[in-house]
Amino acid sequence: MAVPIKEIYIDLSPVLERTGLNLNKLSELTKIHPTVLYKLQWSREEGENKRATLDVLEKICTITQCHLDQFMFIEGESPPMTYLPNLDPKSEKIEITCNLRYLLAKEGMSLRQLSQRIDETYNNLWKLANQEVKRLSFRTIGKILAFFDCGISDLFRLDIRDGTVLKETTSPYGQLEYSIFINLSAVLKKKNTSMLKVSQGSGVPYSLIRRMKNNEAVQVDIESLEKICNYLQVPPDEIIKYRRKSPGNSQTQPPRE
After folding, report:
1. What H or E segment, with its residue span, contains residue 53?
2. Which of 22, 61, 119, 188 could in theory staple to 94 by disulfide, Cβ–Cβ 3.0 to 4.6 A?
């Protein structure tokens, strides 16, 4: 059976019209070679293996101050009107963050299950979910969007490097939002140890250690966290990290596992 897929393409015309720029001026401001921008603009005419470098997309978002969904489109669907506040490109830079783990948690699924359902390699999905992908495959994105029946701004949110928040919250205490994630992979590398050794030394199940290392843990109990910290001799804030975040759409985003 054929896997459902949404056709993804890039059209820079709307943001160029909105900003009063042309491709050459955009190239000058973003420091992106004109050839790269022209290839992006005509990506709709290319074959199936269309890709876009994440760094290039982030630079376009920063300079034009437009969300990704204002120039990356789904064939036959109208994009939402998503706008960003004024930024200073000299001191602030937009970073694109994938919300795949949020979508998985919402459906109670694992990366492995998604990989099987959409006929995509686990390695590709793991890199995408863990912000380690350098180039976005339109075909892979199209499969994910079709499976979850969602839009570009549901799968990707925009963060600003210095922590500026992109949307207002309803909290009476301010507008900051935080994204919480598990940094165990980096700690294991720093300590030059393995998941198996930590499991055997701390008494924490290997399966939980693996989920924490891969940032796939939905919840972590305090007792297990204490055991891991005591074995590795690190404070909890070395393992549980956070950063200020700003979703690219109006929906509330949960913290990362």
Report:
1. strand 51-53
2. 61
Strands 135-137 and 94-98: unpaired
Count of beta carbons in the 10 Å neighbourhood of residue 181: 16
| β-bridge mates for residue 51, sequence order | 137
CA distance 74 to 104: 21
pTM above 0.70, yes or no: no
Go through the domains of the chain in sequence order and give each one's CATH number. 8-160 (no CATH), 178-244 (1.10.260.40)
CB burial of 155-173 (b: ≥16 within 10 Å; e: otherwise) equals: bbbbbbeeebbbbeeeeee
Q: Where are the beta strands (DSSP E) in 99-211?
A: 135-137, 156-160, 178-182
Residue reference for tokens 């998503």 = 82
pLDDT digit string, tens, across residues 116-137: 999 999 999 999 998 888 999 9
pLDDT digits (tens, 9 = 90+) for 189-244: 999 999 999 999 999 999 889 989 988 877 788 999 999 999 999 999 899 987 76
Q: Is the pLDDT of residue 257 over 50?
A: no
What is the rounded CA–CA span in Å between residue 139 and residue 75?
Answer: 13
CA 103 to the chain's CA centroid:
11
Amino acid symbol at 253: Q
Please tell me what DSSP assigns to residue 241: E
DSSP 254: P
Return the exposure string of 59-70: e unless at least 16 CB atoms fall within 10 Å of the residue's CB, then b: bbbbbbbbbbbb
